[in-house]
Please model this.
Amino acid sequence: MSAHLDDAALLAAELLARRWLPRQHPRVKRALIDADLWAATQDRLAQVGLRLIDNLYADHISVALLRPAEATVFGEAGLNSHNNLDLPRDAVSLLVVLWALIVLPKRERQQARATQAEGEMQNDMFGKDKPVPTAASVSPVVPYKALLADFGVQLGKKTRLDTNLKRLEQHGFITRKGEDIAEGPLLDLLLDYDALAPRILQGALTDVLSQAKELFGHLPQAMTQPPLEEIIEDDEPEA
Model:
């Protein structure tokens, strides 16, 4: 028996099948400017305990569990763990390191360019709204050899690091471009920037950031103190 599916149902179905969709996807582009379609999609997902995840600074959208559904799905043991994706602790540590190396400088560049564009608009009587730069255009890449040299000892050396990089790639947090590690579709969606950034910027990195002009160049030595476990303990990726 076939049934007609409206755009909200199709968008929800495609998100469930693919896990994430680019913001340039035709149906996603429409939903981002059509409040009714966005609300209808949210309603469809809510019926199965899910919600849309969107971030102006990310190039994709995704889905995650509604908070009331988490206890039933994961149970108390799952909710009290340091993550709900069954990642080992060293994989979560690696995830936080890569998030700091990629998302923090990316977000800084996006906000700086958006501020610059806003200033140009104020001087242009016929200026049009300019979007935030895409993640792909400003997101830095992390050289694998540099990551291994800076964090190999803390993150289990080469074999363990390689294993966890594969895990993060499979979950959509990163992509690999030869020897470089780049932002994946979910890196800036499933980790809470507002909760995680202050703990990194005001904690492990505070001394370095007070002196450094370039965040990326000074980040590795700063992230080794204090131990990464202290940073990630309460910051878990959403499912």
